[in-house]
Amino acid sequence: xxxxxxxxxxxxxxxxxxxxxxxxxxxxxxxxxxxxxxxxxxxxxxxxxxxxxxxxxxxxxxxxxxxxxxxxxxxxxxxxxxxxxxxxxxxxxxxxxxxxxxxxxxxxxxxxxxxxxxxxxxxxxxxxxxxxxxxxxxxxxxxxxxxxxxxxxxxxxxxxxxxxxxxxxxxxxxxxxxxxxxxxxxxxxxxxxxxxxxxxxxxxxxxxxxxxxxxxxxxxxxxxxxxxxxxxxxxxxxxxxxxxxxxxxxxxxxxxxxxxxxxxxxxxxxxxxxxxxxxxxxxxxxxxxxxxxxxxxxxxxxxxxxxxxxxxxxxxxxxxxxxxxxxxxxxxxxxxxxxxxxxxxxxxxxxxxxxxxxxxxxxxxxxxxxxxxxxxxxxxxxxxxxxxxxxxxxxxxxxxxxxxxxxxxxxxxxxxxxxxxxxxxxxxxxxxxxxxxxxxxxxxxxxxxxxxxxxxxxxxxxxxx
Length: 465
Fold this sequence. Notes:
With 465 residues, the protein is an alpha/beta fold. The protein has helices at 18-23, 36-51, 54-62, 88-98, 113-118, 126-132, 152-157, 175-183, 222-240, 263-278, 300-313, 323-329, 403-413, 444-454; strands spanning 5-7, 27-29, 80-84, 103-107, 122-123, 135-138, 162-166, 187-192, 211-213, 284-291, 333-339, 347-354, 360-368, 373-379, 382-387, 391-398, 418-425, 431-438, 456-463.
């Protein structure tokens, strides 16, 4: 297929066949953070409108009735606010409610107590939250486990007079059970922006004046819509350039932190070097991360390594999306290991490829200096310090007097300039590897002449651009 990317200027992907796209190597992106501020603000708006009965009061006054004594709301100030789900929107909601001088408690089994403490939030069990909270806002995804989470049983556990808001996903609250809890007086009021079935034009909640409802407006602001378009446009540009796309939903490896992102290219280039030197695919590719980088989530580096190796060996386009599928089809396994120790560099990534005949190729790379310059620092136990850029001749040969001069002569005769060079000998001082960065392609006849002149056992031109 010529299709490269499917971009959804929003969050939902119900109308995209993601598995089919993945199978064909087509990246699917959305804009998961484009509406988080808008959604959090809408939850706050529902909370305030519900607590102060604003829509009902507005309706009576529009009917030319002045019923001031009928509407006696509750303050947010000083209350305990329970946040069910402490993801990005849940955190934003909690931060905004904290400004009302509330005490925020939260339930989320995937958030550590330390992280919650950083946010100034007390992490509790769901039962404790239901028992203690004066106001509850739900911020969970809809899954089989969360569907109907606030049903008859859990609503009965809530504090009498609680105010409940759901601007996350329909179906998290049993609407019939909530209506009964409001009628009985146990739940004071509720605000809902989402419903189990949408569009929703009939619900037992619609007849209750204590309920504030909106037709799924959580993402409906001009700013969120503009941001969604901008976000997916950036993702499309990244994808078409072959770069990693943080918002791709069908790329394995997890999120890429700012500490990991600069390493994607050097690891890809290490893979390119392995592929060029071997001319075949390995059966196993090990990505060994050492030093400070090992404290980060680096699983995505395996994808970069696979991209590099495959792009040097096969003709198919290799992307972050189809790299795992290509590896599975061709029997290549990839793994990531980590170690805190790095003797010579703050961080280094060692790529180790094992081939079907038992042979091994190792290539190590690092980033140096404030500019994070990409460098190849080791090939098969031989140390280097060469920028990973441009066209490079990699020559393995038996060291001998005058070998470098012979190589330079052949390149000079062909009008090829050597821009940088690094030589490394093995421990015995016999075998040697030289890396030469050149300014143009080296024709096969020139490579053959160099090979003959120095008795090269391997000579490859590798593009590390």
